[in-house]
Amino acid sequence: MGQQPAVRAAVMSDVARLAGVSHQTVSRVLNNHPSVRPETRERVLRAVHQLNYRPNALARGLAGRRSRVIGVVSFDTILYGPAATLLGIERAARAAGYGINIVTLERLDRAGMKSAIDALTEQSVAGVVIIAPMMTAALAVHGLPTGVPAVVVESGGGTGELPSVSVDQVAGARLAVEHLLSLGHETVWHVAGPRDWLEARDRVDGWRLALEQAGRRVPAVVPGDWSPRAGYEIGQSLVDRPDVTAVFCANDHQALGLLRALHQRGVRVPEDVSVVGFDDIPEAEYLSPPLTTVRQDFDEVGRRCVAALLALLGAAGPTGPEPAQVEPVLVVRDSSGARRS
């Protein structure tokens, strides 16, 4: 006889779904909270019995008081943006008297997102913050278990019913382009980030919008990724074009590679080509030359994100579904200058 496949143990969200209630209501029933109506209590207990649900002992021990832990679902924390966002959330949570519990996913798809939310719910987190920088992640946010207080970070406002916090990427790209145009450059080339990243898409939109509103020629987008290698390889080809006098890179690591390629080919920055990045990584001011870039205030993103989550938990005033956008800041250094004669 063949071995029977293992059956996944039921979790609290399964009980909530079957009973048609939130996971908080299930928790109240299991802990004999007096505020639950008798018919709701009976429906939940019936679902518990039907699913053979066994509550986690730690979760039950915490249920009598509000959890002081915020769950965070993240992706690829090696990259500067997601890593800095996570650090900003952790600092803001600590300042508000909360700890964080992190689940890092290899892929932010719907199945992975649901699994992460279920795991955090079982650990009785007060609420969940989702760092969703990719289009697939924004789509995966839809259909999350009901009753889970959640805020989305870096979503570009595309998550609909959930409150979100993000840096205004379009405004940041416009700052970079308008700065270069003000220095006398006829147009600005753009080395883009990965197409499936919301931030990369918004930076392309801001770059194009700034050029169109200034009545300038819009060059073809130069596709890339977030790596210095991409900037380096693209720089090797752009250097042979005499019409390239200003380049806006989608992030600082691209700009680092681009600067190296230009230096190797004897192209002076900013005398021959001006370069502007995005992020303001800690190394930006120590590059040669120091990099002009667009700074993202990740600590402010974290503060607003935690504030929005506390509002959902009733620890602050109400919050609406509109995205709260943090304004970026242009940091002018030595890599950008007047157009050559």
TrEMBL record:
GO molecular function, one term: DNA binding
Keyword NADP recorded: no
Keywords for this protein: DNA-binding, Transcription, Transcription regulation
UniProt keyword Iron present: no
Domain (HTH lacI-type) ranges: 10-64
Name of the protein in question: LacI family DNA-binding transcriptional regulator
Originating organism: Micromonospora fluostatini
The organism's taxonomic lineage, starting at the top: Bacteria, Bacillati, Actinomycetota, Actinomycetes, Micromonosporales
